[in-house]
Design a protein that fits this description.
The chain has 290 residues and is α+β, with helices and mostly antiparallel strands. It contains 10 helices and 9 strands. It folds into 2 domains: 3-86, Phosphorylase Kinase, domain 1; 96-289, Aminoglycoside phosphotransferase (APH), C-terminal lobe (Aminoglycoside 3'-phosphotransferase, Chain: A, domain 2, Alpha-Beta Complex), CATH 3.90.1200. The protein is 46% helix and 15% strand. Helix 4 (104-122) packs across helix 8 (227-241), helix 6 crosses helix 7 and helix 9 runs antiparallel to helix 10 (275-289).
Length: 290
């Protein structure tokens, strides 16, 4: 399955429709067909299981938060099986230069509405979610062998630096998980949209929805260019919720997830088109953390 064959399929199935390739994530290829988003799994078995889980999650979440959440439909065809949902109107905001260039009022609205989304999600009762969402579990960090990390980071870091990275990964991963909440776990600008005033209006891509540490919700905003945004987000979240996110634990979780990213990028052939771009992000995060 690749972009070109899917485009041929969509053009045949939906003649006279506007079809646009949006991009690819770790597990899916995404297209816009008129006013709907179509996602095709790179790995059919894994992808459909993820979409089915996401369908349960979004159906449960939709009436419990004040933000738009897509209604996932799974289409099982003879040629392709895919997930689709109506596009949520608004603008994505994943570029750090874009965020830094926002007018102050728009920027403040963005920070506050991100914090509001997190707070509303984290307030939902975990036991109730478990009753309604099959296979909803607690985040379990991947067990990455040293050899896999070493293979992935050779040429980017020295042997001693790689040993240091692995030692920190093992130490951080061994900490007892506390302060558990429901997590989107991939909340960021590319998985949400805002209105012209900077207010988040909708959040999508709920495939990573899990129970986990509150700090795990913030780690996607730890990246070059968004340092101030993360600080402001933590402040805004505390103002709304009365709870201060632990920045040190956020950094530890970023460290754990970044080690896991090295493993995935070097182990899964379907991620090959993303490898160079994503590895550059991995290297950048490690350099911020070491």
């Amino acid at each position: 399955m690749n972009k070109e064959t899917i485009e041929i399929f969509l053009a045949r199935e939906f003649p006279n429709y506007n079809i646009e390739f949006i991009g690819q994530g770790w597990w899916s290829l995404a297209f816009r067909v008129e006013n709907s988003i179509f996602r095709f799994p790179k790995d059919v078995r894994m992808g459909i299981e993820i979409y089915e889980f996401e369908q349960y999650a979004t159906d449960f979440i939709r009436d419990k938060i004040s933000f738009q959440v897509p209604a996932i439909e799974i289409v099982k065809g003879t040629e392709y099986t895919y997930g689709k949902h109506k596009r949520i109107a608004g603008d994505t905001w994943y570029d750090s230069d874009f965020v830094k260039g926002l007018p102050s009022g728009t920027y403040n609205n963005l920070v506050k509405s991100c914090a509001k989304f997190m707070h509303e999600l984290h307030q939902i009762n975990i036991a109730e979610a478990q009753e309604h969402i099959p296979k909803l579990g607690q985040v379990k960090f991947l067990e990455v062998p040293f050899d896999a990390l070493n293979k992935g980071l050779q040429g980017h870091f020295s042997a001693d630096e790689i040993k240091t990275i692995y030692a920190k990964y093992e130490r951080f991963k061994s900490r007892e998980a506390k302060d558990l909440v429901l997590l989107h776990r991939d909340f960021q600008g590319s998985n949400s949209v805002m209105d012209k005033d900077g207010n988040i209006v909708g959040v999508f891509d709920w495939a990573n929805f899990h129970i986990g540490e509150r700090a795990n919700e913030f780690y996607k905003f730890f990246k070059p260019g968004l340092e101030k945004f993360l600080d402001d987000l933590i402040d805004a979240y505390e103002s709304i919720s009365g709870i201060r996110a632990d920045i040190e634990r956020i950094k530890e979780i970023i460290f754990i997830n970044t080690v896991c990213d090295v493993f995935w990028l070097n182990d899964y052939e379907s991620l090959a088109p993303l490898k160079d771009k994503e590895m550059a992000k991995v290297i950048g995060r490690f350099k911020m953390l070491l």
